[in-house]
Design goal:
- 63% of the residues lie in helices and 6% in strands.
- By secondary structure, the chain is mostly helical.
- It has a single domain, classed as Four Helix Bundle (Hemerythrin (Met), subunit A).
- The protein has a two-stranded antiparallel sheet with strand order 1-2.
- Strand 1 and strand 2 form a beta hairpin.
- The protein is globular and about 50 Å long.
- The mean pLDDT is 97.
Length: 168
């Protein structure tokens, strides 16, 4: 049995974002229960040269939104990166999921051999669609979701592997 580019991307992205949203909800509840200003958690980082939690979430959503858009050959919405609360991050995730849900399998399937080109901070990159998905998008989204999870866990939020993996 083969797996399509759509099946390998959009459902995996939605699952990762739904799990991230649930983890952030636990972070918000933790801050509220302990009377911690949520900005403390949102601005926490694992190490001085790493991005804080809020930026990890922004990058995770940017990665899936722009990556899925490129695979589908459509423009993706842009966000201003101005979130400063758990609630705003949750809205960003929900908006990203809504965009992903608007994509149809026929838009993404067949992109495995298409050249995907994107701009990084320092250069223009190109890859074929399947390596772009498997070697760039999926590892990047999982890196940033994992890092967000680790920041909250490091700060005492009671999350575990089941939270990261999500239901079923």
């Amino acid at each position: 049995m083969t797996i399509s580019m759509y099946q390998a991307s959009v459902p995996a992205f939605i699952r990762a974002l739904n799990n991230l949203a649930a983890i952030l909800e636990k972070g918000a509840a933790y801050a509220q229960a302990r009377k911690i200003d949520e900005s403390v958690l949102l601005n926490s980082r694992l190490f001085a040269d790493m991005f804080p939690l809020v930026r990890q979430v922004q990058i995770a959503t940017d990665t899936v939104r722009s990556g899925a858009g490129r695979l589908a050959g459509v423009d993706s919405p842009s966000y201003e990166d101005k979130e400063s609360t758990f609630q705003e991050l949750g809205l960003r995730i929900r908006n990203t999921i809504s965009f992903l849900e608007s994509l149809q399998p026929a838009q993404v399937d067949g992109s495995e051999d298409r050249t995907i080109t994107w701009q990084t901070r320092s250069s223009t990159k190109s890859m074929q669609g399947q390596p772009y998905l498997m070697n760039h998008l999926l590892p990047n989204v999982h890196f940033h979701v994992t890092t967000a999870y680790n920041i909250l866990r490091h700060n005492g939020v009671e999350v575990g592997k089941k939270d990261f993996l999500g239901p079923g």
